[in-house]
Amino acid sequence: MGEYQEMVNSSGKTGRFLQPGEQDPLVGQPFAKNFYLPEKDDAGNRKEAPYGKLEERIGSGGFGVVYKIRFHIAHPWRTKLDLGPFGAVKILPNVDNEEAVKRFEREGKIGTILSGDDRPKSLARIVEFGETSDNYKYILMQYVDNPETLGDYVAEIPSEQKVERLSLEESLYAIYHLIEAIDYAHKKGVAHRDIKPSNLVRNKKDKSEIKLIDFGLGAIIHAEQGDVSQVDAATVDAMTQNKDFRGSVNYASPEAAKGEGEFRDYPKDVDVWGVGATAYALLSGQPPYTGSDQTHQEAMGILGRIARYEEDEKNYNRRQDVVFLKKLEPKIPWPINDWVMRCLDKDRKRRLRSNQIKMEYKKALEAIGFKVD
């Protein structure tokens, strides 16, 4: 990976954004983590082999680049964990960024917590979290064949050309599996804090395979109290030291507009809003408070107005600036509409609780006669 490190250092960036026509130097290279093969050489020493070859760059974000890896035929986890021939490996190329390293390590730790055999199928298994011999941090995980993000089915800006929409049935199915993932994560003491359609990935050919990804803004929480663990609090804040917002403003909860403490101290409530906002977007084709083309500051202003609470109950509009879902999409059944809007109550004390969203969603599905296999 020396060539990649040189590219990173010379540009002063993490190397995740390539120039037009520029080839990623890691594609086609063996993944620089070796394991012992079963057979030995003539001297009786066990042979080593790389985990596999990085075949394709499939994603990049603020803190890491994701590659499709073809496993070596003898890779021990292929059969043990029923992974198939491919995996996905997320690599952090810039280990000089202290904040990036902390986030990446937290994401790997969270992934390990959520990789038990009892996890729902909507959570990808983390195979291994570690460091290569070249000191690169990596997270090795399950791969989704023929991947597509459900963010492709949402128009983030209303004036955009109409995107292809999910059907009502597809949306209801995806929401169910999102809830399964979040319910399990919360019971394991983990909050996601950046739930949005683009963090839901499915198999284009087998649309029943849907997974929630990217716990990069995740938090390890006290399971009983529901707040962020003091041990983890130093590294889980979604705000930088100068209080700049981190996350996805079109799906952020009102707590994000109130400042660091609100966002940090109520992570389960933040996730309930994220589930509701994502459900709203999948069902309507747009986020819950994107009424016109907006800059980031305008969107934050709307978020701030939603967050404000009027002391006078008569003047308190608890769903201010969030258009009634059924008004946008009359075909949405009332039980589903009501469940979504209860997740999007701007007052977190009135919002559905974390331990209610799964049960209440199942009731809504039963009311409309929709079954999830």
How would you describe this structure to a colleague?
- By secondary structure, the chain is an alpha+beta fold.
- Helices cover 33% and strands 17% of the residues.
- The strands form four sheets. A five-stranded antiparallel beta sheet has the order 3-4-5-7-6, with helices on one face.
- Helix 4 runs antiparallel to helix 8, helix 8 runs antiparallel to helix 11 and helix 11 packs antiparallel against helix 12.
- It is elongated.
- The termini are far apart.
Helix and strand layout, with pairings?
Elements: H1 2-11, E1 34-40, E2 46-50, E3 52-61, E4 64-71, H2 76-80, E5 86-92, H3 98-113, E6 126-131, E7 137-141, E8 147-149, H4 168-187, E9 190-191, E10 200-203, E11 210-212, E12 219-220, H5 230-236, H6 255-258, H7 260-265, H8 267-284, H9 296-307, H10 325-328, H11 334-343, H12 357-368
Antiparallel strand pairs: 1-2, 3-4, 4-5, 5-7, 6-7, 8-10, 9-12, 10-11
Helix pairs in contact: 4-8, 4-12, 8-11, 11-12
Which key terms come to mind for this protein?
17% strand, disordered N terminus, 5-stranded antiparallel beta sheet, alpha+beta, 3-stranded antiparallel beta sheet, 373 residues, 12 strands
